[in-house]
Amino acid sequence: MSAAFRRATEALWGWLENAAALALALMAALVIYQVGARYLLDSPPSWTEELARYCQVWLVLLAAPVCVRRGMHLAVDLLTPRLPLRLAAVIRVGILTLVGVFGLTLALHAVPLLGVAALQTSPSLGVSMVWPYLALPLSGLLIALAAAARAAAGQGGDQTS
User: Fold this and answer.
1) Cβ–Cβ < 8 Å for 27, 102
2) pLDDT digits (tens, 9 = 90+) for 2-32
3) In the chain, what's the furthest Cα-to-Cα distance?
């Protein structure tokens, strides 16, 4: 792998982590503002709940590929520690392959939803529903790429960055 490709890859994953952190911060600020407005002003703005919900969707779907890349996804590891190292590695790569197939399936099945979403607008914000739905194919593709990179490197479910 070339140094330029490695730098570009690291920049992409750094951007994803920062975008997920920004979505979390914005979601928290929106919820705090909404609760404060409800109790102090007795009139919460309707758009805060909707935008907080979209931030949560983007947060989860941006953080999922990062977690796959780091080997931080949820796992019950009862069998592989008892197996020979090579067999355990083969099983882990097989699981990563399934995760990658899931990511590609998510991406491919989410793309047609964008056409339907383009015909709709969100009730409170009035923005195209493409924006919330765009997180699905993007996340699926990035999950597949992260799983493929880990599988190609022979990394299993252990936590590495």
Assistant:
1) no
2) 888 889 889 999 999 999 999 999 999 999 9
3) 63
Looking at the DSSP bridge assignments, the partners of residue 121 are 128
For residues 57 and 46, which has the higher predicted lDDT (pLDDT)? 57
The helix (H) or strand (E) run that includes residue 101 is helix 85-117
Instruction: Look at the pTM and tell me if it is higher than 0.70.
Output: yes
Position 26, amino acid: L
Which tokens sit at 38? 């409800």
SS (HEC) of 125-150:
CCCECHHHHCHHHHHHHHHHHHHHHH
Structure tokens at 99: 């995760």
- The pLDDT value recorded for residue 160 is 42
| Distance separating alpha carbons of residues 89 and 159, to the nearest angstrom | 14
